[in-house]
Each structure stands twice: as C-alpha cells, then as structure tokens.
Amino acid sequence: MSPSSLRYYGFGLQNGNYSVKLQFAEIEYPDPLPFSWKSTGRRVFDIFIQGALKEKDFDIRKEAGGRSLVAVVRNYTIPVTNNFIEIHFFWAGKGTCCVPNQGYYGPAISAISVSPFDFTPTVPNREPGSGKSKTGLIVGVVVGITVLGLIAALAILYWRHKKKMSEIDEDLLGIVDRPDIFSYAELRTATEAFNAGNILGEGGYGPVYKGKLSDGRIVAVKQLAVTSHQGKREFLTEIATISAVQHRNLVKLYGCCNEGNKPLLVYEYLEHGSLDQALFGKRTLYLDWATRFEICLGVARGLAYLHEESSVRIVHRDIKASNILLDGDLNPKISDFGLAKLYDDKKTHISTKVAGTIGYLALEYAMRGHLTEKTDVFAFGVVVLEAVAGRLNSDQTLRPEQIYLLEWAWSLYEQNRAIELLDPKLTSYNKDQALRLIGLSLLCTHASPLQRPSMSRVVSMLTGDSEVSKVTTRPSYLTDWQFKEMTNNNFRTEEFSGPTSQNSGTRGVKTSVPHSESSHLLFDSIIQEGR
C-alpha cells in the first residue's frame, strides 16, 4: 500500500497479449460497526495498465459489497509491444486521509499475476539447468573431473583477481548491488586511448567519451577530471544511487572503474544526445510538438520514481536540459546523478553546500540551502518552459523583456497571450496541451515549495487525469527583484556544458557555494543589481 502511488514493472516480456489478474482485499480497516461514527474513510484510487485507465475511482470495500477481508478480482487482457508491462495504482484524491484514524488511504494491492493469453512463449520459463537428463549429469561429472587438472591455472587466475580487487577502494566494495567493475586498460582500448575525436561532451565530472566494449556494446565513458571540484564521495554517490534505481526514464549504468586516480563511469550510449543539444544546438534533429510533450511526460515519470517510488528517496539537484538524454526513439532518460542527494524524512532537509546550475535553482535552495524534492520540481518547470519555447532560460541576445524566459512567460500569461511563448520552429501543436504545459511550468516554479505539486501529481496533470491548478499571482522573486545574469565573482563557478552538448554553443555556470556563504553572496549580488 502507499499514500499516493504504486507502480509495478515487468521487464523482458516476449511481445504478445497477456492476461493480467489483479487481486484486492481491504485488510487494513475492519468492517465498521453499525450505527457508529467511527467508520474509516474510503480507499479510492485509479488503475492504469500500459498507461491506459482501466478503473476510475476504484473502491475495494465497495466492490466487495461493503465488506472488508473479502477478495475482489479484476482480469484484463493487455498487449505487450515493447517487452515490458506497466501497472500503476494512483490515489484518486477522494475520501479522507486521517479521520478518524490516521493511515494510508491510498492504493493497495494484494497480488498481481501476468501470463500469456493467446500464445506459447518461445523463451523457456524455467531455471537454467532444470530438467537435465542423466546424460547431462554424466557429462557434468566428466567435466568436473577434467576441471581438476586445471587447478594450477585457476589458482593463478584467482591470485591475479585478488590482487586486482585489492586495488579497488574499500568504499566501493562496500556498496550493495554495485555495478560491474571494468579495468582501466579495457576502457582505454574501448575509447581508443581516450581519443579526443571520441569526446561526446563535457559533463560535471569532466569529458565523456564514446567507446565500444569487447562484447560490441557502444557505451559512454565519463571520466572524472583531475581539476574537477567533485571528488571521490560524489563519484561513489553516483554509483550507489544509480545502482539502487531502475526505470526506463533513467540512464542505465553498466559499470565503473576506480583504478588509480582516474575514476570512470560506464553508461549506456544514447545516440541522440542531450535535450539542450536538440533544442538549442546546431543539429538538424527536429522535435515536433508530440515529441516534446512526451519528453516532458517521460522526465516527470522519471522524477516521480526518484522522489516517491524508488527504494531510496532521491533528489537529483541538477535537473536541466543537458542532463536529459534522448535514445534512438527520442525517449528521455535522466542522467548525471553525481549531485544526487539522498535524505531521510526524519532528518532536516538543510544542505551544507549548494550545488546546481544557475537558472534552474529554486530560491529557497539557493538562498538558504533548503533542499527537498520540490527543488527538482522547480527545475523541471524551467525545463518544460525551455522545451515549449525552444530557447534557453536566459538569453542576452533577445529584447529586454524576453531575456529571462520565466519573466517573459509570466508577462504573456498575465496578458492571456501565453500561446505566443511557443517555439516558432514548430509547424503544428496541440493548443490544449501547450496551455497545460505552460500553466504547469508556472505552478512548478511557484515561490513557495509548499505550493508546487509533487511529481506524481505533475504526471497526473500531464496525462489529463487531474486539472492544472491556476497560479494567479506572479512569484515574489520576480516582483521584488529585477533579475540580471548573476555570474560575477561573488560565486565560485565552474564553466561547463552538458554531457553531450559541446556543439550546442551553450554554456552554463555550476555553483559550488558553501551554505554559510551562499545566501549572503546571492543577496549581495541582487542588491548590487538594484531592486
């Protein structure tokens, strides 16, 4: 059960029609006593399979005739076309949450089963090695005896392996479910000795190289630059973070190398590069309106998973267009978890160090170091505006009223001209979707983090299952302060471009300001520019 959202994935399925059986029972709340005011609230939620709404306002106890501890079964036939199935239960926002007893009134599921409907899988559904004949057993015994003759060679290999493992940092060995360990020599060969011609871009860690492993896989190898402000802790944080989460809208980590003083990360290679390169760069890749909308939706789903559905709650801290990569089908994947912040609900969300990119930083984080998942929501809102308008959030080459995208968006919104924000390169668009995205971006960039929606609610708004709440007043940080580009010497900065954006012609400033200095420096910078 969950307060708001439950999502299940089945990966590696053979394509075809499948029978999905869902079994429910209300087991948390007993049947209410007759003539009692102490009856619990309703558990009402929606059921989605493969993104399609199957049950609206589903109430387990109501379907069971008003009784608890009674089984309710639902059967569906679902097509699988991309080798995976997604089952999502989402709180409908109805009923009570804490009266008379506080508890989880969100979705709950007792059992899920998925089986082929009208075909026999050609992939065997059994453990490797099961059902072997006696002949196989005899062959196994013979092979085992033969292996005894190789003990000396195995002993040598074991000694070499032990020596290699001893060179790997003990902190890395302590990470649960760590990824594959590559040797430096293997990655050096894959990247042709880290040839400059294979550089894909400059990430927060340093250069990112395209490489080809010995098994034929094309990968992106991220190298930690010696001059980078990020160090060993951030390197291990990224490994631990990405190893703990798996989602189709998150970049996949194949492994790492920690030999010597040149730590390396090995990612899946995404041929269409980063979103900022597609939107602002010189490439000929054209993103039509439907693709841009699906990219925003995919990023929202990835963030919702990080914030609410993964085994550990994660704040990315550096959501921006250059950290969103596109695969061959233009599906978005969130990358660069080096700044990810893991936190516990029982602990304060005050960070001792502000890290991120100017233009995407929520005010409460930049000024006070107050870090929550709403920091990512703010940055997501900026990215949505960039995708809609097809331009950077700050562009000094434009007219004064258009330099800052968020301020310009508010000006058009207040004049009921928000549709003029759309990228002129778009040949067609869906007006309802466009207004929904613009309204959602303004809601996500609200000055108060409490007024920003959760990412699961953002997904619901994007899919049309929830209405986008209207924001009627411009944020105080736009009305009180006259913003100009704050890249003066008050900030210790590191120039960078995204992991695959060396051709985009865009550069940003990544802040690395200790909390004790950040709010004062930002405030001083604003005062110098004038109110």
UniProtKB/TrEMBL annotation:
Superkingdom to which the source organism belongs: Eukaryota
Transmembrane segments: 136-159
The protein's name in its UniProt record: non-specific serine/threonine protein kinase
Residue ranges constituting the Protein kinase domain according to the UniProt record: 194-468
Its membrane topology: Single-pass membrane protein
Enzyme class: transferase
UniProt-annotated location(s): Membrane
One Pfam family here: PK_Tyr_Ser-Thr
Location, primary (coarse class): membrane
EC number: 2.7.11.1
GO molecular function, one term: protein serine/threonine kinase activity
InterPro entries named among the record's database cross-references: Kinase-like_dom_sf, LRR_Rcpt-Like_S/T_Kinase, Malectin_dom, Prot_kinase_dom, Ser-Thr/Tyr_kinase_cat_dom, Ser/Thr_kinase_AS
GO cellular component, one term: plasma membrane
Region called Disordered, residue ranges: 492-517
Alphabetical UniProt keywords: ATP-binding, Glycoprotein, Kinase, Membrane, Nucleotide-binding, Phosphoprotein, Receptor, Repeat, Serine/threonine-protein kinase, Signal, Transferase, Transmembrane, Transmembrane helix
